[in-house]
Structure formats: structure tokens, C-alpha cells
Amino acid sequence: MASAAVAGGRSVNQAITKPPQSLWVDAWHRLSRNKAAMFGLALILLFFFLAIFGPMLAPHDPLKINSGKGFLPPAWMPAAWVSTNNVGDPQFFLGTDSIGRDVFSRLIYGARVSMVVAIIPTIFITFFGILIGIVAGFFGGTADNLLMRFTDIVYSFPDILFFVVVMFALRDTPIGDWGNGLILLFGALALVNWVGVARVVRGSTLSIKEKEFVEAARSIGTSDRNIMQKHILPNILSPIIIITAFAVPRLIIAEAVLGYLGLGLRPGTSSKEFFVTSWGSMLLEGQTAINAQPWMLLAPAIAVALVVMGFTFFGDGLRDALDPRMRGAG
Amino acid sequence: MTTPVQTPDATSALPPTQTDANNQALLQVRGLKKYFPITQGILFQKKVADVKAVDGVSFDVYPGETLGLVGESGCGKSTTGRTILQLYRPTEGQVVFRGKDLAQLKSEDLRKMRSDMQMIFQDPYASLNPRMTVGDIVAEPLEVHNIVKGKEKKDRVQELLQIVGLNPYFINRYPHEFSGGQRQRIGIARALAVNPDFIVCDEPISALDVSIQAQIINLLEELQERFGLTYLFIAHDLSVVRHISDRVAVMYLGKIVELTDSKTLYENPLHPYTRALLSAVPIPDPLIEEKRERIILVGDVPSPVNPPKGCRFHTRCPLAIPICKEVAPEWRDVGNGHFVECHVV
Questions:
Q1: Interface predicted TM-score (ipTM) of this complex, two decimals
Q2: Can you give the pTM of this predicted structure?
Q3: From the list B114, B122, B177, which residue is nearest A220 (CB)?
Q4: Which residues of B touch A241 (CB under 8 A)?
Q5: Closest to A32 measured CA to CA, from A42, A19, A20, A43
Q6: For A23-53+111-283+292-326, which CATH class?
Q7: What are the chain A neighbours of B119 within 8 Å (beta carbons)?
Q8: Is B72 helix (H, G, I), strand (E, B) or coil?
């Protein structure tokens, strides 16, 4: 600013018209200094990369049965750790499963399910959570009471039990066939998880709607809808982003649990299909051979752990970056 | 302008606040009440009591004047202002603005009426949306009432910023980049955007530094002259109100106790509460200041949930006589549009 002032009125005006650093730019600066968050972001990006370019990266067809090459341990694993007499083959980086399918390729293809679960149900829960929370918080009274009591009811279901019931009830119906059962899976996940978002949004709305600028908007004649869209929503984005970032790992774990229980999406029959396998079903296959071939269980378990860790670290960093208390004055 | 049809009920039977019939009021407030319910229970709420924030006030506001509204914190001044603008819907009473009773209007009609009456808020830090640029804030009323669009809108916003003494290049900036006084100017520009006739100024200067207060007061006076605005000026600072107001109303515990032109009020206050208030204003002359006699009121303001029976001020009034405890005094004219609500004076 100082140099601009010296350069004369014109550039002062230019300096004034220049859009200032917004909250988001500020937040990004803070986030980029947070090592754990950046590590988390790197993990997330890595798994998205794997999910998108899976077919190009996977060394083998994830469904191809290499007869006679089953039970192979990873080639780099010391022989002392392997309880069978099989010797690893370097072309199978993480070994093979009981029928000779490449674990590494399956792992890469499995990333797709987790990453899609990280996105699509998240969009649904964020949308419905915001809608229900903002309406309840803004209008208050009876609308609030009805919506929040409904939210409490959904909240009080045990999640996993609810998933299991929904999947069992619907998986053999036509609905359960859509997209290898993926639609049903998304539906079940979304149906339970919006409550967290709705509660946070309602709480934030309650505090923002008492601010004078909302009253000012009312005194101008702004409609309720515009007040919610232009005045309330932009001011509660930070808590929404944070709660969403923390919802993602829960969704990924829930999907893995369902896969493990055999209730997740159906395994694909051809590697041309977009979803061939999921980490949850790999866990299920792996646990039957936990003593003989621990890599079959460990590989997907570690993958799930890494993704969840990535999102959790990133969410933590986001919270620190966006928390208004962390924001300096101006 | 059509005079409103007033049903002969208790509220409209109240005497008018000004005898001068030639002067048609822009705003007539009659028996305005605003009660806030106190509820108990979470799921099944039941009302246990009311906070009687405004409990039957009547006054007129004439075109081009500034009516000051003073009183201590919690006496219902701000609630009165907000209830007039229907930011709170009144519990009872009429707010007749240009012949239309705002309290009866449907919300959509009311929304359209809002371009004629605006509000300037107390806290310039809270009254501007931190996520909107100054340009968007000032343009919002123009968009809501569909006044101008596109390039014209931008020009109008810049013009408004200039009118309130801000650099028109500020349109892309965010409120947090401004000082309190500048933010208050933005708030004033927003209120002016729709060319209102009537503006409620809700303590527009009490959150500002003293040096800035004078600037904002001068700006408000200048704008009044330039655009023929009518103000309801709410404040607790008596000297500021004296400076800016043509007439002043004094509120105590939800009621107006005295209303007259500002010269009379400051020179010849009648109501004991007004006298006590005025006696607290320091005089900037050491010799006179030394002789100033303060009337110290004893006790606290009673709760607006259970206001005292009779005159609301009798619990603290130095002049109280037995009747004050039993009968509420009438709102009467003691001459020349000087209204007071007291048994004694």
C-alpha cells in the first residue's frame, strides 16, 4: 500500500479496488503451513489418483485367476514371516489371494468404492443436512421442533444395525441391483449420516440469525429465502466444511464394515466394470486366511486406515484454519 | 393520503399527541404494545409470563422532523423502533404509516412498504454481513426492490458511497477492512439506497468513538436536509438528542412519560423522571456545574415482567403521593403539545 500511495492517486484507487484477501485465501495459507493436514491432503489425492487411473496403474487384471499361483506371499517379505512354503513372485507386489488374484491390483480397484463413497453420499448428506438444519434453525418454533425431533429419532438408531437392516431388506429387490448395489449402499449411508450435519447447521444458524445484519436484511425487505442463502449460509460454511470433512472417514469405515459383513456392493464379474471389488470385501476374504496369508487382510486394512487418517488429518487442519477464533483481527 | 379508519376501541381512544391538526403526521403510533413471552418446557412449551417491553405508547411523527426517543437501557426504546418497522410484530396497537396500518399488513405487502422506511443500526460491527462486499451490501436493497440493474446499479452504489462520504472505489472491499465510523457510513448508505422517507436510527452513534460521533451526527443532519428525511432517533445520550431532535419523547419501563419539543423539555422538564435524567447531564461550565443539583433516584428499574401497579415510576419517584400507587396517570396535554403522564405535575 505504501508504495502505491507514493505512485499517485490512480494506483491508490487501483489498490483499493483490488479484491482483498478473502477468508478462504487466509485459511489456505494457514492450512498449507499445517504439516499433518498437508500429509492428509497428499494421502487423499493419492487415493483419488489411484481410484481414477486404476486400470492404467494396476499391474494385473484384478479378477484374473492365476492358477497355481495362489497363496503367494509378497516377494519382499522375509521368508521367516511366511508360514507356508510358497515363495513370493516379484510380479505380485502384495502377493496373491487363495485363488491367485493379484492383491495389489485388487487394492487399487478397491480404492474406487471408497473414494466414491467419500464423495456421493457426502454430497447427499451435506445437501439434506444443510436444508433441514437451516430451515429448522431459521424458522424456529414448530418447524424446528418437528424437524429436530425427527433428527433425534434418526440419530438414536444404531448406524450399523440400520445399514444391516436396510441392506438385508432391500438387497434382493430390484433396488438392490442398481449399480451393483451401489445405489442402495449410498442411500443407506446417506439416510443415517445427514443428522450430524443438520444439527451443526441448525446450531450455527441459530447463532447467526440473531446477528444484526440479518435483522438489517429483514428491514430492507429481503425475502426469507434470500436471507438464508445470502446472509446465513455464507456465514456458516466453515462449520459445514469441517463437519463434512469428519463425516467422510465415517462413511468410508461404514462402507468397509458393510463389505466385511458381506452386505456391501456385489463383487463385479468383469474387470471392465467400474467397481470390481471393495476393501470391505477384501477384508472379508482376508480374515478367513488370517494365519496363513496375513497380507490379504493387512493390505486392505492398512489402505482403509490410511484413507481415514488422511481425511481426519485434513479435517483437523481445516478446523484449525477456518475456526474464527484462530482468525486474526482483520 | 387517507386517514385510517380507527375503531373506537381503547387504543384509538387515546388522545392524539399533537394538537396542531394542520400538520399531517407521517407516522402515527397508537397504543403500541410488544410483549415477549417467557416460556417453560422443551417439547410442550407453555407461556408463564410476558416481558412487557413496550406497554402502550402513542405518538406522532411529522414529515421532516426528528423525534428523539430517550430512556435508560432496557426501557424499550429499541423495541419501540423495531416494532414500528415491524421487525417485531406488535402484540397490540396500531402503527399507521401514510394511512396504512403496518401491523395489519401481510408480510408480502409489508416487504414492499419497506422501501419507504429504513433503519440504521447500533452496532456497525454486527450490522454488516462479513461475507459480502460493500458494493453488495449497499446494492442489496436496490435488488430486493428491483430499482436499478446492471451498470446503473453500480453507478447508484458508487453515488451512495459518495453521498455518505466514502470513496466510491471501496465497492470491492469487505466490512472488516473499515473503521467503526466508516462502517456506520456504509450502513447509512444501505438505508438511503431505496430513497426512504422515514428512518429509525437505533442508537446510531453509541458504539462509536466520541470524535466520530459528531461526524456521523452531522452526516445524518446533512442527509435530512438534502433528502427531506424524517428520523426517529433513539439514544440514551441526552445532549446528542437535544442537538439533533425537534421533539423528544422520554421513555420509562415501556411507556412514554413525557413528550415535547426539545427546547421545552430541556428547559422546563415536568415529569420527575425527566428531571432526574436531565440533572445527571454534566454542564460544561465549572461554575454552573458546581451548583448543579443532582436528583438521585433510589432503587432499580422494576422488572418489565411485573411492572408496578399505578404509575410505573412511583417506586422511585421523589414526588410520589398515595394515588400514584393505585391509579395509572393519564397521558395529558399541558399546553403547546407538551405531553406528560403524571399525577403530580
A1: 0.83
A2: 0.79
A3: B114
A4: none
A5: A42
A6: mainly alpha
A7: 216, 219
A8: coil
